[in-house]
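[Meeting: bench + compute handoff]

Bench side (C.D.) handed over the final construct sequence. Compute side (W.E.) agreed to return the predicted structure before the next meeting so the bench team could plan truncations. Sequence as handed over:
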Amino acid sequence: MKEFDNVDDILNFAIEKEEEAALLYRDLASRTENPGTKRLFEELTEEELRHKAKLLAIKSGKLLAPLAEKVTDLKISDYLTELELGPDLDYQQALSFAMQAEKAEFKLYADLAQRVESQTLRNTLLMLAQEEAKHKLKLEIEYDEHVLAEN
């Protein structure tokens, strides 16, 4: 994992990751023809942009309280292979790629939370990890209902 010298480095890295995630979902939304999936990716784009806004608020000194909830993990993404985004991305591939991305984001925030001393920043990173877990759950439910159900 990348080494960080201070809290600003962590926040800047997390902000960059949220921007990348928003761009990914915007790209996936533009590639899919399924209206429900397009809407899901558009919603995830907006949520990633809200995460970025939260991180920017933290960076400017505003404090956030973590969410006190546990998110269910269906573990579907644990059984999927990593994918590359090609020009002919189908519905199943888009969902698989997005689940893998959310799993990686969850692990990133959980790992970063273990590395910081500030309880406020730790709580915020754990809150963001929970948000990424929620995104993964949404994608897993979509996959379960529309891909696994068809097979």
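W.E. noted at the follow-up: Residues 7-148 form a domain with the Ferritin fold (CATH 1.20.1260.10). C.D. will use this when planning the next construct.
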